[in-house]
Amino acid sequence: MTTARPAPPTALRGVSVSGVRLEGVDVARALALLGMMATHVGGIADQVDWSDPGTWAAVAHGRSSSLFAVLAGVSIGLTSGRRSPPGPPRIGRVRGRLAIRALVVVAVGLLLMALQTPVYVILPTYGVLFLLAIPVLRVRARWLLVLAAACAVLSPVVALGIVPLYADAGMWEVQLGLVYPVVTFLAYVLVGLAVARVGLEARRTQVVLLSSGAVVAALAYLVGNAVAPVPADAGFAFPGVPNAGEGSTAVEATAQLFLSPRDHSSSIVDVVGTAGVAVAVIALCTLVFDGRGEVVRRIGYPLAAVGSMPLTVYAGHLVVLAALPTYPDSAAAWGWFALGSIAFAMLWRRFLGRGPLERVTARLTRLVPDPR
After folding, report:
1. Which of 96, 133, 207, 296 counts the most CB atoms within 10 A of its CB?
2. Residue 8's Cα: distance from chain center in Å?
3. Cβ partners under 8 Å of residue 227, min gap 6
4. DSSP letter at 275?
């Protein structure tokens, strides 16, 4: 005797979706968004000092943007067949729609950069990463991880190698490939795509991902702090660029290049550690919030609403920043941004469904016709 399984919802306020939506992924995406807001307006410390609780919020540096990028890979995987990506001709439609989505994200990012807020906008790099993911949509999870490992190894070399190209760059230029190095962040997207391909919906997989992500992150940071401790002058380092510290020897500089645990250092330890944290957070959120009943769903709804419209919330907080007469930089400012984002997302999702920018993006992607 078989138990009938409920059919997945085919629409949310008239917007088609692919399979059952994972609320935990939306919650994780909300954490990434709120974490990036904290780095923008929260007045948090530059580096974590575990002996000083006042600096602990600095864990948002680096890890929020990397979580956002890993979730990009997860999103690509969930919308392109989850564990079983389709073959031709359907995969052609998926690739075409992903390309349009990428162009929309790049365009929105460039418009946000034109606002000239003192914030490094990740969206142009984010859109390029979507394009780079198109050729690997049908690659198996193990090979995606191999590619991600290769990107992690190349990450510090490439990040350091492109620095001369930005010798005379201003705020606008450094946001295009320097602060968010493409090779570095491609590793995150590939990891996220692999996570979606192994089947994020299964409880056993969630537990394995949670434990393995936590172990990998812990080992990476243990090695990094033992071999290449963060220099005292790390606060002056430029994000995304390896930095050896004043007066370092050749051996110390090499260790910092490849094994520095500094956030946004683009080192192997930084990429592996932050990717491990991201995987653990995503697995924990899905483990806690998916398939746990109506009460848990309601508890997670405020964050899930924010995470269901990441492009809108991210763009919205930068537009608000640009409109303010003075730039905010305090925990209170972050609190207001967080509460405002949650209230907006909850109301919009409750009455209108998909976020405004997400709705526009979906309509544009439907320009790619279904295969005959």
Report:
1. 133
2. 26
3. 255, 259
4. H
Query: According to the model, what pLDDT value does residue 372 have?
Result: 66
Q: Which positions ≥6 away from 99 have C-beta within 8 Å? A: 130, 131, 134
3-class SS at 12?
strand
DSSP string, 305-363: HHHT-HHHHHHHHHHHHHHSSS---SHHHHHHHHHHHHHHHHHHHHHH-S-HHHHHHHH
What is the reported pLDDT for 9? 36
Tell me how far CA of residue 154 lies from CA of 149, 158, 159, 191, 338, in angstroms.
9, 6, 8, 15, 36
Residue showing tokens 């290769």: 150
pLDDT digits (tens, 9 = 90+) for 30-49: 999 999 999 999 999 877 77
Burial of 293 (0-12, 13-18, 19+ CB in 10 A): exposed
Give me the long-range contacts of 231-237 (CB less than 8 A, separation at least 24). Answer: 231/256, 234/46, 234/47, 234/262, 235/46, 235/47, 237/262, 237/265
Give 215's contacts (C-beta < 8 A, 6+ positions apart): 276
Are the beta carbons of 191 and 278 closer than 8 angstroms? yes
Give the CA distances from residue 130 to residues 21, 106, 135, 252, 269, in Å, rounded to whole numbers and listed in that order: 20, 10, 10, 36, 24
> From the DSSP assignment, how many helices (H) and strands (E) are in the chain?
14, 0
**Distance between CA atoms of 3 and 1, rounded to whole angstroms?**
7
3-class DSSP string for 24-45: HHHHHHHHHHHHHHHHHHCCCC
Q: Which residues of the chain have pLDDT under 70?
A: 1-19, 372
What is the chain's Cα-based Rg?
A: 20
Q: Are 189 and 129 in contact, with CB atoms under 8 Å apart?
A: yes
Instruction: Give yes or no for a contact between 290 and 24, defined as CB atoms under 8 angstroms apart.
Output: yes
Q: CB within 8 A of 31, min separation 6: which ones?
A: 64, 67, 281, 285, 303, 307
Check residue 19 and give its pLDDT.
63
